[in-house]
Amino acid sequence: MSTRDDPGLHWDRWPNAGTREEYRRLRLIEEAYDAHTIPQLERLDPRPGWRCLEIGAGAGSIARWLAGRVGAANVVATELKTEFLAPIEEQGIRVVQHDVTVDAPVGTAFDLIHARLVLEHLPARDDVMARLASWLAPGGWLVLEECSFFPPMAADPVFRRVEEALMKLLAASVGTDLTWGRTFPLPFERAGLTDTDAVVSSPVLRGGSTFAEVLEVLLVAAAPGLVASGMVTSDDVDGAVTMLRDDHAMVDYSILGIIGRGRRGA
């Protein structure tokens, strides 16, 4: 997830990038989010023969689902690191190592392009949206899912502080904007797309849930940077992790998933 503007901002700078712990996080994201992603894709009724592109395919679950609808040969799955995608490549899906911010298109005239929790981490996200829109076939759909943090809604003051600190650390080290999704569907319209729409669809952050485990993995990796920043203490981070592990300690709505879509004109 590099950027032309600042090559130092890149997901590879994030702790655990490319490790088995990162693979675990990606699998947890699938478990937490697929039940919200798939119904939104089903609304578009992808059919056999559709050409589909999955940007930042993670561990591959959505590319696999698309293959079941349109045929494996019609699906392209991209990632910065592709080693986690070997199983879907064996199923006939085309897997490409690709940086969506700078690399040449892996194809054009796609009927559906989807990315989940990708563009929020790209400082050049508006430019990337324009690129993706240009890769669509006439009538093709772009669907993006982003995570939006809203710390003032956090149920616990310690969790609020940690959430605010995590947002700032991600912004400084990766280039992430965890408020961008709240502007949907306006970025789709700026990219020239029509029939735009956006919905809030995400799991509830409940202690002990898979979604909470996703956040816990992220916090544990970020903990040294969070404490070193002086924005929070190690006790704050430990307290947030404890809440995330306890299904009696937390129900929180300060982290929401937002799914936007838009269509290229005929």
Task: Kindly describe this structure.
The chain has helices at 20-42, 61-70, 86-90, 125-134, 157-173, 186-190, 210-229, 234-245, and strands spanning 52-55, 75-79, 94-97, 110-116, 136-149, 194-200, 205-206, 251-252, 255-263. It is of the alpha/beta class and 266 residues long. The protein has a domain at 11-148 and 177-203 and 253-263: Rossmann fold (3-Layer(aba) Sandwich), CATH 3.40.50.150. The strands form two sheets. The chain has a seven-stranded mixed β-sheet with strand order 3-2-1-4-5-9-6. Strand 2 (75-79), helix 3 and strand 3 (94-97) form a beta-alpha-beta unit. Helix 1 (20-42) packs across helix 7 (210-229), helix 5 (157-173) packs across helix 7 and helix 5 (157-173) packs across helix 8 (234-245). The model is unreliable at 1-11 (pLDDT under 50).
Give the overall form: globular
Class of the domain at 11-148 and 177-203 and 253-263 in CATH? Answer: Alpha Beta
User: CATH superfamily assignment of the domain at 11-148 and 177-203 and 253-263?
Assistant: Vaccinia Virus protein VP39
Which architecture of the domain at 11-148 and 177-203 and 253-263 does the CATH hierarchy give at level 2? Answer: 3-Layer(aba) Sandwich
Nearest-integer average pLDDT: 91
Q: What is the topology, as strand order, of the major beta sheet?
A: 3-2-1-4-5-9-6
- CA-to-CA gap between the ends? 30 Å
Number of helices: 8
List the uncertain runs: 1-11
Helix content: 25-40%
Taking the sheet with the most strands, its summary is: 7 strands, mixed
Residue share in β-strands: 15-25%
How large, in whole angstroms, is the Cα Rg?
A: 18 Å
Structural class, please? alpha/beta
- CATH fold description of the domain at 11-148 and 177-203 and 253-263: Rossmann fold
The number of distinct β-strands equals 9
- The ordered string of helix (H) and strand (E) elements is HEHEHEEHEHHEEHHEE
